[in-house]
């Protein structure tokens, strides 16, 4: 397995990219401005694309260059552009109602990372993999998952929800690139395509929400109960 | 007809209905195209589980036709046919949306197509994508009525289900990683290769992968406590869409859980996976019972009944053994027959009374002498009373639980089923026998289309009655076969 026997330079490069992606997730968690989320998400996708290429280079997987390039193209350029288009239609630039203050949500996010670390250390120990990169990749994968769910619960704006779901998937993407670089190309391509379709659907729905409910905040979605 | 050709036609029929319907852009044409596609799908899918030479893989191993997948495809085909017949009358009545009908039927056929593909997908990763696609297509069907309620339901549906099944993607990734300890870095993770590798996969990865996938796909199945999208989506879509969601969609996600359970069993994971499934099943029954008792809205009543029946299915597969698996598979078809019937009845009542509240729906006997009687029989059937098909299937599941290690769950199931029986039929008693506080609604016009409404309900009821009186021996052999294939029998 690649991640278990890495050259020191490759190990530090992978670690750097993974940690930078995690920090960008915290940037999203700490910001109230929708445009900032989007930029942080785009930057994160670029890092993951670079990571794919790096894994392809060090592991000798030629198809990962393709995956990296397409990740940058789809997640780093097309998706942010689509989201920007949705944002321009809306008159909300930021989250108006805070469930928790920024600092509280950052602290909860830090707690989530610690939890993910504990789980990852146990998991790696059980698998007999002592490599730091493996533990780090697992930690980042699980914590981005948890941070994505935090964003989904703590935020009300439709755009924040879409980005929350994209962060969930970015985490999985990052983890699979490091831990399972051999995943068949076809699956990765279809996943990318699927994401594109999903965001297009979200975009249409956001427009409908605006027309029929007059707001894109989930605080207004309280007609259906019981 | 060769198997490959049959599957190709099975997928081509709804695909053609989508393409031609969108090209023709005429409401009537798209209506009949969809109807023709549903008949073709039904004819092609009915013999599918009983063909010789199953399981077979097609398209370079990406498609598997095994008895389990074929059975679920059959359930989808049944619901698609019933819902397509009913949709003719129901959607014509929704007069203000006539121009949108070609789009509706294109989405409808596309939704059916995605559900016919998902259970036959062989690759674990591609299955995940197929399930995600069913969500994306059906979101627009849920929101089709374009009012505030349906938009809210559609948004909740896509957000809750997408975030939920992203957990299943994480689970799939962990399972792939586990398999790479056996097969090496690059391989294709199919259901069969996962089951074969399972004994050698590190147990911790298999366990985590299974539990994450259970939560993820469980969201799509509507198992409580991940069911929160279900009552909204089922109650706000047009009635034919509710029928498709409840009768067909939930089953296609259940297949994934069942196949992963087989892999966990092959690895000798002990009782944990079964206990997890049984606990979710019992909790779904409990949530279903609580919300059925206090329900005031007719379609939400049916939706919580779906949560209940998915709980029953989870219990059947969780109890395991030939009896549990056979009961669950039989229950799947019975539920696919009964739930559309109930949603059609609810759709009739909603359109006639112009309200979804059961307090407004009174004196149903007077309004619907024929379809009202069928709807009432359907209500008796869905609560698991004889002589309808859900009685033998629920009884088989109960027996499976009785003899296994989960006796407590079987007892709780029995109590909750009785509570649901009382509460559900009490709502129907009120709707049928209590006097209306309001003036009775106007008599239907010629556009009501009584024939299109009664036909699917009568067909479903006849099938339910037949299945309740006679469990075909060929099916018993089929179910035993599937149970053996899943490793439920040593």
From TrEMBL, chain A:
InterPro entries tied to this protein: HyfE-like
Cellular component, GO annotation: plasma membrane
Keyword annotations from UniProtKB, A to Z: Cell membrane, Membrane, Transmembrane, Transmembrane helix
Superkingdom of the source species: Bacteria
Membrane topology label: Multi-pass membrane protein
Compartment annotation: Cell membrane
Organism: Fulvimonas soli
Transmembrane stretches, start-end: 6-30, 37-58, 64-87, 99-121, 133-154, 161-180, 186-210
Keyword Transmembrane among record annotations: yes
Protein's name according to its UniProt entry: Hydrogenase-4 component E
TrEMBL record, chain B:
Protein localization: Cell membrane; Membrane
Segments passing through the bilayer: 6-25, 32-50, 70-91, 103-121, 127-145, 157-177, 239-262, 274-293, 313-333, 373-395, 407-430, 450-471
Bilayer topology term: Multi-pass membrane protein
Domain NADH:quinone oxidoreductase/Mrp antiporter transmembrane: 126-414
GO CC annotations on file: plasma membrane
Alphabetized GO MF terms: oxidoreductase activity
Keywords: Cell membrane, Membrane, Oxidoreductase, Transmembrane, Transmembrane helix
Protein name per Swiss-Prot or TrEMBL: Hydrogenase-4 component F
